[in-house]
Design goal:
The protein is about 25% helix and about 30% strand. With about 180 residues, it is of the alpha+beta class. Strands 1-2-3-4-5-7-6 form a 7-stranded mixed beta sheet. The longest helix has 15 residues, at about 15-25. The radius of gyration is 15 Å and the shape is globular.
Length: about 180
């Protein structure tokens, strides 16, 4: 059965939050230390604002969520509702890049095109709203997907968790449309 995409709803939150937890724990292993993987939960995860804005997708097969992700017209670059430094201000599509955010694939569905399908849907939707560019903050595990889809590295930095653990990430950008 093919992968189907649809917009996420509030009812999806519990299942997607659990999918995110599994994805962080399993897919970051090999790229981060165990301490960094555990600390990543403080700077990654569910952002209900994306669901409320109608910019967050669920990829599913036979009604089972395989992945989730989307884009935002808001200033926050990355993180969940609990992440420090959030800014819900709206971006100017003519002058500022849309944000691709909160991309997660269930570990059991990794390498099946789930992330690529969601990424393409997010790029298309952001471009349809007039955004000329997109930016995202990639994990080390996610960066190969983005590179293969034409995203280019802007900078590497360390995201600091409340526990003082640094998690390496990569800010990337791409022209849309």
């Amino acid at each position: 059965m093919p992968i189907a995409l649809r917009l996420a709803t509030e009812a999806d939150r519990p299942a997607l939050t659990e999918l995110m937890r599994r994805a962080i724990d399993a897919l970051q292993t090999g790229f981060l230390t165990p301490q960094q993987v555990a600390a990543s939960h403080a700077i990654m995860g569910m952002d209900p604002e994306l669901i409320a804005d109608g910019t967050y997708f669920v990829a599913e097969e036979d009604g089972v969520p395989l992945g989730c992700g989307g884009w935002s017209r808001r200033r926050t670059m990355f993180g969940g509702h609990h992440t420090a430094g959030r800014d819900s201000g709206l971006l100017d599509p003519a002058a500022e890049p849309a944000r691709v955010r909160a991309m997660y694939t269930d570990p059991a569905a990794a390498r099946r095109g789930v992330g690529r399908a969601i990424l393409q849907a997010a790029e298309t939707a952001a471009a349809a709203e007039g955004f000329l560019r997109g930016e995202l903050v990639a994990t080390l595990a996610g960066a190969p997907l983005y590179r293969s889809a034409g995203w280019e590295e802007i900078e590497r930095f360390e995201a600091e968790t409340p526990d003082g653990v640094s998690v390496p990430v990569i800010r990337m950008g791409k022209a849309l449309g």
